[in-house]
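sry for the spam today, last one i promise. struct tokens for design, 199 residues
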């Protein structure tokens, strides 16, 4: 399509796209993250991209960057299970980006076909610290699971011993529980000790 004003301008109506590589933004917790994405669009007007904006493609790119920073700041990079975050809500995040960019792109006469995220990560300056935090959280979670299971196993073992006629006093029961919990919870080889006298 050709738009005419002081000069002739050719405006392609074909589908077009541009990449956004490693855009640094701050999430809702203030953590710097890097986001890469791809925006596809098509001009539906010859007049708007030539008359209403100086450089339609550059305008779209700058608006896409502004929208990305604005929306990313509403969400944390990661959150506990069940809470929205950038890592778990990529699809909804992309739809929100597309819709908001479409509004910002109205002066260009472009239709935003998609705004897809291609990469998402912590910025290099905090990546190592965040990995260490994730590792620590995973270790704590794993230990909680192990302890919970150990308590249930120990309780079941004591109850089964009693149901089979084994009788022991409170101190002996405590030693059995302590040894079972030690064996199950220990991350290293454990050597439990039991009194053979039954007291």
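last one done:
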């Amino acid at each position: 399509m050709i738009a005419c004003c002081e000069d002739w301008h050719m405006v392609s109506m074909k589908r077009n796209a541009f990449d956004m590589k490693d855009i640094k933004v701050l999430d809702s917790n203030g953590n710097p993250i890097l986001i890469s994405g791809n925006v596809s669009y098509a001009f539906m007007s010859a007049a708007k991209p030539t008359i209403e904006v100086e450089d339609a493609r550059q305008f779209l790119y700058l608006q896409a960057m502004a929208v990305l920073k604005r929306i990313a700041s509403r969400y944390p990079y990661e959150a506990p299970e069940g809470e929205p975050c950038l890592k778990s809500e990529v699809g909804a995040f992309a739809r929100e980006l597309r819709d908001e960019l479409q509004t910002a792109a109205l002066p260009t006469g472009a239709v935003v076909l998609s705004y897809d995220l291609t990469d998402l990560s912590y910025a290099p300056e905090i990546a190592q610290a965040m990995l260490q935090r994730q590792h620590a959280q995973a270790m704590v979670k794993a230990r909680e699971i192990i302890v919970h299971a150990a308590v249930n196993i120990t309780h079941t073992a004591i109850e089964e011993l009693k149901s089979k006629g084994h009788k022991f006093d409170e101190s002996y029961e405590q030693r059995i529980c302590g040894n079972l919990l030690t064996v199950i919870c220990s991350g290293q080889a454990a050597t439990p000790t039991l009194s053979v006298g039954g007291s």
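Residues 124-163 form the longest helix (40 residues). ok im logging off now
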